[in-house]
Write a structure and sequence with these properties.
86 residues, alpha+beta, three-stranded antiparallel β-sheet, 31% strand
Length: 86
């Protein structure tokens, strides 16, 4: 399902206009992204939890040459499904 299809489905279910649904969806994405950047956890009961996980610096290998390289530390978003969603 694409973003456009999801917004259309949400609009049909709620009876809200496509424009208002798109604005609401974009605001939801912005809020969740902002919270993850701040290292906050976003929990939606019955659905799941979004959180940011830290990956420390590590050694890796170039698959074509086999040369060792350093992979920088990073933060990556993760999602854990809630009990009723599973």
């Amino acid at each position: 399902m694409t973003k456009k299809e999801m917004i259309a489905a949400m609009s049909d279910d709620t009876g809200i206009t496509l424009k208002d649904t798109q604005d609401t969806f974009d605001a939801f994405i912005k809020v969740v992204t902002g919270a993850l950047i701040q290292d906050d956890k976003v929990t939606i009961p019955g659905f799941g939890t979004f959180q940011s996980k830290h990956r420390p610096q590590r050694e890796g290998r170039n698959p074509s040459t086999g040369a060792a390289l350093t992979i920088a530390e990073s933060n990556t978003p993760s999602f854990k499904a809630g009990k009723s969603f599973k």
